[in-house]
Specification:
By secondary structure, this protein is of the alpha/beta class. The protein contains 5 helices and 7 strands; from the N terminus they run E-E-E-H-E-H-H-E-H-E-H-E. The protein has one domain: Rossmann fold (3-Layer(aba) Sandwich).
Amino acid sequence: MVPRRTDLAKGDVVLKKITVGTDGSPTAAKAVDFAIDMAQRYDAELVVASSYVPVSETRLREEQREAPGDVQWAISPSEDVNATLHEVEEKAKECGVTVVTEAREGEPAQVLVEIAEKHDADVIIVGNRGMERRVLGSVPNSVSHKAPCSVMIVKTT
């Protein structure tokens, strides 16, 4: 650990940035709740990350056609994930946590690792969903091998 993250005289770990991934599922919500609690305890900034597969062009055109003109701008390829991130952002702010959200198109584990690296995260929090399969490719497994920082896998199932 670098000195800004550790009080070397005391040996206490100090977390400045915590990254958590969410897909809006109930199990991801448990990891988010854990991350919000941890951010409160350490007075750390919370970076909430999510990956997405773009909404189909057919669905976008249909929704834009049916939407009132003043909200058509909000209909985008990432609209579903934006709603999820907004919900988490509001929850974190209600708890007094400074929060940043970011969504990217791509594979969930890779997106989470890239966002954590971009924001210089001290720790990534991810739920354990998928770990029971014992196969390569689960999000927690991939994150734990590729992360640029510590990883905390939270029991969410």
